[in-house]
Amino acid sequence: MDYSVGWSSRAIADVNAIAEYIARDSPTYASTIVGKILGATRNLGQFPLSGRMVPEFSDQMIREKIVAGYRVIYRVKGETVTIATVMHGRQVL
Predict the structure, then answer these.
(1) Averaged over 40-55, what is the pLDDT?
(2) With a threshold of 0.90, does the pTM exceed it?
(3) Which terminus of the chain is more exposed, N or C, with fewer CB under 10 A?
């Protein structure tokens, strides 16, 4: 059974902000990072629990994947995976 995967408006805005910030110095590198972030989420429909539990929460359904120093945080609920936010690993959640 495949889960449906969706992005919150916040997560979309996060990725856009990351891309804009990196593109100031290197549009090519910005594109590479965005591609890696998107790539890390492609298998979540088949493997929703593949990311690790977010240490700040004691909820097994709130998980994350680390991609090039960024935390892709998502929630599994029912048959849906929602990408909640994408943030730099040094930011406080």
Answers:
(1) 95
(2) yes
(3) N
